[in-house]
Specification:
The chain is built from ten helices and 15 strands. By secondary structure, the protein is an alpha+beta fold. Strand 6 and strand 7 (about 110-115) form a beta hairpin.
Length: about 290
């Protein structure tokens, strides 16, 4: 889905009208383009691998998505007036939510709220040809997993990466009239936003999209490597991570300098097992 979004914003002809993309993901964490994984996501969820890790091309904060969350994307021909003008894109969504009894409104951070709680986060990206403005809507998502996966870790993380703003969230399934699932909301938005045509991709386009999904959006370099320089500190241990690689490990225990180790959680034990005090390092990393 992230590869589809990028393909559309870079290549679609939007001169005759905007495009609307609606989709539902399996459980995952989606980071903004300029965020640090180590700062945003609870390490327990990195360690046990229960959630797919993703990174989108737009900025903004980290979001949890599952089958109870609906993603919406507007792809539009670029103009300067559309940059950060979330209200022009999202007002039709707000209106559609109000029609089913959800008291939706936008706040100053471009979120959509209901009864003071966040139900939708939004972000944008443009290549000056087109612009994509996309967001999420919590319908019946697992909020326990959402909160746990974004829970701050018990160690200090320093980075110039963009930080997520923590917000109180809620689902709309107990509020919306005649709607109980993300699939229901998808059909409602298709009707209310007057999505009339279905845009199909050629086999050649699908090949490009699938290749981007595999080679870019699933890659170590994109998911981990784009995390800006991050320093993780706990007790007397300090780990410096850049481009997904451990650049330096410092400790009062005189642990040797370790460099060039790929910061992949599944293989980190093997990578460090021959170094003295590796168990102390692992206490930090895990």
């Amino acid at each position: 889905n992230l590869a589809i979004e990028e393909h559309l914003v870079r290549h679609a002809d939007c001169s005759k009208g905007d495009l609307l993309l609606l989709y539902i993901n399996t459980p995952c964490m989606v980071l903004g383009k300029n965020q640090s994984i180590y700062k945003e996501i609870n390490f327990e969820y990195l360690r046990n691998g229960t959630l797919l890790l993703c990174r989108r091309i737009s900025g903004g904060g980290t979001v949890y998505q599952d089958e109870g969350n609906l993603c919406f994307s507007f792809i539009s021909q670029f103009s300067e007036q559309k940059i950060n003008n979330y209200r022009s894109f999202n007002q039709p969504v707000v209106n559609a939510l109000r029609k089913i009894g959800v008291d939706a409104e936008m706040d100053e951070r471009n979120n959509i709220l209901c009864n003071g709680k966040k139900i939708s986060g939004n972000a944008q990206f443009t290549n000056r040809k087109n612009i994509i403005s996309h967001g999420t809507i919590l319908v019946d998502a697992n909020l326990d997993v959402l909160r746990a996966s974004l829970r701050p870790n018990d160690f200090k993380v320093e980075s110039k990466a963009v930080s997520s703003v923590r917000s109180s969230v809620t689902n709309i399934n107990g509020i919306a009239v005649g709607l109980s699932s993300a699939k229901d909301l998808k059909e409602h938005l298709k009707t209310e936003l007057r999505a009339v045509d279905v845009l199909g991709f050629s086999d050649a386009e699908w090949n490009i999209i699938n290749q981007a999904a595999e080679e870019k959006f699933k890659s170590f370099e994109w998911i981990y490597g784009r995390s800006p320089l991050t320093t993780i500190t706990k007790s007397d241990l300090q780990v410096v991570v850049e481009d997904g690689i451990i650049r330096e490990i410092k400790t009062e225990l005189s642990l040797p300098l370790l460099t060039g180790i790929r910061y992949e959680f599944g293989s980190i034990k093997k990578a460090l097992e021959n170094y003295p005090n590796a168990s102390d390092v692992l206490k930090l990393l895990f």
